[in-house]
Amino acid sequence: METIVFYILAAVTLVGTVLAITARQGVHAIVYLVTSFFALALIFYLLGAPMVASFEVIIYAGAIMVLFLFVIMMLDLGKPEKIQTPKLYDWCPAILLLVVITGSMGVLASRAATPLNAFAGISVQEFSFTLFKRYGAAIEIISMQLLFALVGALYLGRRR
Amino acid sequence: MTWDAIDIGLMLAKIAVLFFIILTLAAYLVLAERRILAWMQDRKGPNRVGPQGMLQPLADLIKMLTKEDLIPAAADRVLFAVAPAMASIPAILTFAIIPLAAPETIFGHRVSMQVTDLDVGILFFLALSAIAVYGVALGGWASNSKYALLGSIRGLSQLISYELSMGLSIVPVVMLAKSLRMSDIVNAQAEMPFIVYQPLAFVIFLVSILAECRRIPFDLPEAEGELVAGFHTEYSGMRFGLFFVGEYINIIGLGALASLFFLGGWRGPLLPPIVWFFVKVTAFSFFFIWVRGTLPRLRYDQLMHLGWKFLTPLALVNILVTGWWLSLR
């Protein structure tokens, strides 16, 4: 049962992401990407991580993508411009990424897969104890960085 | 997880009953709003269809279903068609985590009166309210009309702003209940409802849910004086109906959540739990209508100032004070 659901969700994620990249209209790309985020969130839920699943939806689909949508709607690009046929030079990052992905897939496939105990389900309490006791310092550093970014953005916004 | 036939049957029954309840309640909330507003403004209101206008929702439904479903020529057809569903589905899904009454024992099974008691209940609610934005935003954008676009841009910025203060105002509730699970939150209020400890959080939550529902005084996205009907200007027939019913389902859902977080949900003396819950939700719905009948619309900058410069800092201070108090206790 869980395997079937997983494959459906994985297919939705992949198709959604591919369509997000190839969509010409910015708003359509966002809708596809949000769809793939939903499927991804459900995959996290299947893996027994409901916290991560809800944060995936709240932060990525609910905050970041909404801001993107806001900007695209404000700019109102109208008709998407004709993009020139990509030259060989433009393909370099894509080829690099392809090499990295095939490499990591190869490494993953060569190892014996340890089956996850399906739907173990980590409670919120366990999750937060691990997060704040074991990785407390890292959390503090990240939150300081976010604060710097916030102040920096405010400064750039204020400067005339 | 092992499921037997009775469990699955009970689950399906719960979902079916819940659907029936919320759709009926939403339909009659529309009628109640029209009658109560009329009463406040010294008018009669709709009282012709059936006794006291009780069949008016049915007549409205028939009218909406039989109207022509217009799609503007310049609209983005697919997004235009799915946006009303995107607006109403999150509102309906919120009810999955709302416990309507105390758990009962049926056929030897302990049945909780909610569809699912998620470990991350509050986060589920926050996620749904975060994605409810898409219906408003995409509906207005896909209409390809200036009024609709302006309405949806307003709606977008309003919903993200007030989501923040709404989320922050529930944090003290989680701190007191020590859980994100809805049943734990209700059980933690067995002795005293949280409104006694958290009056400030309650007020912030109430103002934020008014804004989340896009109701007067926060109905800038559909301000009819300036934007015709805002983001749903171009919609007609049942697609408009979905936006409309979604808004009322949202009112009931958020009222239910407010009573769960601060008033102890279905807990109360003497009367059976379901009656208490119904009374509390009805009281919140009446409050929403009352506010609509009383307050004028805010200006756009006032709306943003209230959200970002007043409610959000206040909610943060409230969290700080609650933490301090909990650590001293």
Q: Describe it for me?
A:
The complex is a heterodimer of chains A (160) and B (329). Chain A is built from six helices and no strands. Chain A is mostly helical and 160 residues long. The longest helix of chain A is centred in the middle third of the chain and has 26 residues, at 50-75. Chain A is globular, with a radius of gyration of 20 Å. The mean pLDDT of chain A is 82. With 329 residues, chain B is mainly alpha-helical. Chain B has one domain (70-328). Chain B is built from twelve helices and two strands, in the order H-H-H-E-E-H-H-H-H-H-H-H-H-H. Chain B has helices at 5-40, 56-66, 77-93, 121-131, 133-143, 146-177, 182-188, 199-212, 224-227, 237-262, 273-294, 300-328, and strands at 104-106, 109-111. A two-stranded antiparallel ribbon of chain B has the order 1-2. In chain B, a hairpin with a 2-residue loop joins strand 1 (104-106) and strand 2 (109-111). In chain B, helix 6 runs antiparallel to helix 8, helix 8 (199-212) runs antiparallel to helix 12 (300-328) and helix 10 (237-262) packs across helix 11. The model of chain B has no long low-confidence stretch (mean pLDDT 84). The A-B interface holds A 25, 27-28, 31, 34, 50-51, 53-55, 57-58, 61-63, 66-67, 69-70, 73-74, 76, 119, 121, 123-124 and B 1, 76, 79, 118-120, 123-124, 126-127, 130-131, 133-134, 137-138, 141, 149, 152-153, 156-157, 160, 163, 179-180.
What is the assembly state of the chains in this entry? Answer: heterodimer
Mean of the pLDDT scores of chain A?
A: 82
Helix- and strand-based class of chain B? mainly alpha
Greatest interface (CB-CB under 8 A), with counts per chain: A-B, 26 and 26 residues
Q: In CATH terms, what is the architecture of the largest domain in chain A?
A: Up-down Bundle
Largest sheet of chain A: none
What would you report as the Rg of chain B, rounded to the nearest angstrom? 20 Å
Strand content of chain A: under 5%
Q: How many alpha or pi helices of chain B?
A: 12
Order of helices and strands of chain A: HHHHHH
Shape category of chain B: globular
Spatial strand sequence of the major β-sheet of chain B: 1-2
Task: Give the overall average pLDDT of chain B.
Answer: 84
| Weakly predicted, low-confidence segments of chain A | none
Distance between the termini of chain B: 40 Å
Subunit structure (chain B): NDH-1 is composed of 14 different subunits. Subunits NuoA, H, J, K, L, M, N constitute the membrane sector of the complex.
Family (chain B): Belongs to the complex I subunit 1 family.
Transmembrane segments (chain B): 12-31, 78-102, 122-143, 155-174, 194-211, 240-262, 274-295, 307-326
Membrane topology (chain B): Multi-pass membrane protein
